[in-house]
Amino acid sequence: MKTDRKLIAPSILSADFLHLEEEIVNVCTAGADLIHIDVMDGHFVKNLTFGPFIIKQIKKISSVELDVHLMIEKPDDWIDVYADAGADYITVHSEACIHLHRAVQHIKQLGLKACVSLNPATHPSVIEYVAKDLDMVLVMSVNPGFGGQQYIDSVNNKIRYLNDLRKQNLYKYLIEVDGGVNADNIKTLSKLGVDVFVAGSAIFKEKDYNETIKRFRSLM
Ligand code: DX5
Ligand code: ZN
Fold first, then answer.
1. pLDDT, tens digit, for every residue of 162-182?
2. Separation in Å, CA 109 to CA 106, 113, 140
3. What is the model's pLDDT at position 16?
4. What is the CATH number of the domain that holds 24?
5. Which range of residues forms the domain containing residue 193?
6. Residue 4 confidence (pLDDT)
């Protein structure tokens, strides 16, 4: 899965929901590599967002793959539903999975990219026994649930750990960082080994998505 290309994944949590179709088409045209979709259930995190019906519609208009981040309890019960809705990447939280190995295998058996997310206080060693099967590790750099929060600096050490683990074992997973990513930290993150940059407010608050994504790419 590891590619030399760095990917930008706009998080539509910060998009204008009254014009969601336009927003998605515009970020795709501006050069987004993935559309990041935050699914929240009001239990694992204190917020509610998109469900499978909306994702099914997004799938019809997105020209890039869908990166579906499940911030929900019992994600195993929902993997088939989100696969059917059109997810290309499915991320489950390690904290929400009692049977993480089974969840990862389930996603892979559906032919999708299997990804595991780690909250800021979760030690990255929790992925060790599934690491060889993972397509991506999502490092939460804010506490999940809301856009527009500040990047938590201590997460840099976790990215280093995951990059070293990958190098030492020739694992293929991508490292994705999610939360507080912006033009001020993207260069540092890229050097630490991040491959996929999720950015919500830093993209959608700008007028010109094309210019913003171009700027990000020049810093990566
Ligand atoms: C937060 C979500 C993020 C969020 C990031 O729980 O997982 O994807 O949209 O938003 P920003 O980039 O504004 O921190
Ligand atoms: Zn997310």
1. 999 999 999 999 999 999 999
2. 5, 10, 25
3. 98
4. 3.20.20.70
5. 7-219
6. 72
Q: Give the closest residue (by CA) to ligand 1 atom 6.
A: 144
- In this structure, what are the phi and psi dihedrals at residue 119, rounded to the nearest 5 degrees? -65, 160
Phi and psi based region of residue 12 (left: phi greater than 0; alpha: psi -120 to 50; beta: remaining): alpha
Closest approach atom of ligand 1 to CA 45: 6
Verdict on whether the full-model pTM lies above 0.90: yes
Count: domains in the chain: 1
Q: Which of 38, 140, 185, 216 to mutate to test the pocket of ligand 1 (most atoms within 8 A of CB)?
A: 38
Atom number of ligand 1 nearest to Cα 36: 8
In a domain, 162, yes or no: yes
Give the number of whichever ligand sits closest to the CA of residue 146: 1
Instruction: Please report the pLDDT score of residue 2 as a whole number.
Output: 61
* CA gap 188, 192 in Å, rounded: 6
**Residue 212 falls inside a structural domain:** yes
Structural domain includes residue 31 = yes
| Residue 158 is assigned to a structural domain of this protein | yes
pLDDT band at 3 (very low <50, low <70, confident <90, very high): low
